[in-house]
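Suppose a colleague, Dr. K., hands you the sequence of a protein chain of 139 amino acids and asks what its three-dimensional shape might be. Before reaching for any lab equipment, you can write down a predicted structure in token form. Begin with the sequence itself:
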Amino acid sequence: NSRGASLLKDSIPIPEFSDSGLHEGNDLLRRGFTSVKNELLPKHPLELSEKHFQLNQDKANFDTLRNIQGIHAPLKLQMEFRAVKQVQRLPFLHSSNMALDTLRGNDECISFEDILNDPSQSEVMGEPHVMMEYKLGLL
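The predicted structure, expressed as tokens, is then:
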């Protein structure tokens, strides 16, 4: 029976098998308000470049570091970045990622996010138990 369900799932999209479920609506707690304007209007060409600015800057820094010190230096730095990114606070608390800023050399810089912050990380804290259950896949 499970084999038939998997064949059916692969061939026909059925709402019962989807991840979001049949009767699940917009979850304002996790996703915020939807904006029709963002779906209708084309995005600005520089938006993608600005989104990937840090990634492009890291790649350029790794290339320079590799040319100066050899292949071991960027590999060591990438391992440190990966280790620091794994350390997080609980899902309902904002994490400042101070160790990542220190590794990148941004710990002494004051940027837009330091003053106005990201709108998706507002000061309104969600219900801790619900957010932990969602992260653990219990909901």
